[in-house]
């Protein structure tokens, strides 16, 4: 699991916080935390359910869950591949 602080766009915006769009008015961005989670296929739905149950506040900005495939994983330090590298 990786947490990435980044800027996002969309309908959500915290009017109390400083945003990159304050510095660059042509953008409509706000600070978000992106979770990147890599799991085997048989755990995808379980992870989705956990995030949906525990990540929901009921307020705008609760986020999105995007699911995509990972074709291969390589661990540089150990030269492991696939699930062994995760």
Describe this structure in words.
- Strands 1-2 form a two-stranded antiparallel ribbon.
- By secondary structure, it is of the alpha+beta class.
- It contains two helices and two strands.
- It folds into two domains: 1-36, no CATH class; 40-86, no CATH class.
Summary keywords:
two-stranded antiparallel ribbon; 2 helices; 19% helix; alpha+beta; 19% strand; 86 residues; single chain; 2 strands; 2 domains
Can you lay out the helices and strands and say which pair or pack?
Layout: E1 2-9, H1 20-23, E2 29-36, H2 44-55
Antiparallel strand pairs: 1-2
User: What is the number of beta strands?
Assistant: 2
Main β-sheet, in a few words?
Answer: 2 strands, antiparallel
Number of separate helices: 2
Helical content (DSSP H or I, runs of 4+):
10-25%
Query: What's the overall geometry?
Result: globular
Order of helices and strands: EHEH
Provide the gyration radius in Å. 17 Å
Per DSSP, what share of the residues sits in E-state strands of 2 or more residues? 15-25%
What is the number of independent domains?
2
As residue ranges, the low-confidence spans are none
Question: What is the gist of this entry?
Answer:
This protein is α+β, with helices and mostly antiparallel strands and 86 residues long.
